[in-house]
Specification:
The termini are far apart. By secondary structure, the protein is of the alpha/beta class. It has one domain: 3-Layer(aba) Sandwich (Glycerol-3-phosphate (1)-acyltransferase). Helix 1 crosses helix 2 and helix 6 crosses helix 7. A 7-stranded mixed sheet has the order 1-7-6-2-5-3-4, sandwiched between helices. It has 9 helices and 7 strands, in the order H-E-E-H-H-E-H-H-E-H-E-H-E-H-E-H. 38% of the residues lie in helices and 17% in strands.
Length: 202
């Protein structure tokens, strides 16, 4: 079922993955990317080689993916998503929110994460939220692989429900890691620039 869904996503979006100074491999990576469409995690997940896709789990909003039976089934059985609570006003600490993500990494899974925290328009990549930094602190040495998703904001713009027939592209760049003693603002900006640098990668 997983491979069929991935094939369908690639067929609909024309998505292709391109790797620059980085090779796909299974196990304990965090894929980070720009976020401008509901299609983002589907496309990034779908272009991964099947052996990598089998151990890669998207991080997704619990309130959306538990909204109905179909979404619950897709999240748990197809994508094996790590669901996080994003309800405004919920009084939980970063450690509580990130613990399931860190545990998934320790068990050998990779994750797909969108550090902007919310969908943008695609015009620019917004500042990254602090969760990525704290997750890397909780799992020292984990590889963070930047990726840039091109055209998805045009295929399915924010607020729209009808897809435009265009081709999409996912560019993966060289992994980075949180360095010893590296401060949060510096790391988050370094990670954001790594994603942005792939926009025009050839």
């Amino acid at each position: 079922m997983r491979n069929f869904v991935a094939f369908l996503v690639r067929l609909i979006t024309g998505a292709q993955g391109h790797w620059f100074d980085c090779q796909p491999r299974a196990g304990q990576r965090v894929y980070i990317a720009n976020h401008s469409s509901h299609l983002d995690f589907l496309v990034l997940w779908a272009v991964l080689p099947s052996t990598v896709r089998d151990v890669t789990r998207p991080v997704a909003a619990k309130d959306y993916w538990e909204g109905n039976a179909l979404r619950r089934w897709l999240a748990s059985k197809v994508f094996r998503a790590v669901l996080v609570d994003r309800h405004p006003g919920t009084m939980v600490g970063a450690d509580t929110v990130l613990r399931p993500l860190a545990e998934a990494l320790r068990q050998g899974s990779s994750l797909i994460l969108f550090p902007e925290g919310t969908r943008g328009t695609g015009a620019e990549v917004a500042a990254f939220k602090s969760g990525l930094y704290y997750l890397c602190r909780m799992t020292p040495g984990v590889e963070v692989v930047p990726a840039y998703l091109a055209n998805l904001n045009r295929i399915l713009p924010k607020g729209e429900f009808v897809m435009v027939p265009l081709l999409s592209r996912v560019s993966f760049g060289p992994p980075l890691r949180l360095e010893d003693g590296e401060r949060k603002p510096l790391f988050l900006e370094r990670a954001r620039k790594a994603v942005c640098s792939l926009e025009n990668a050839q």
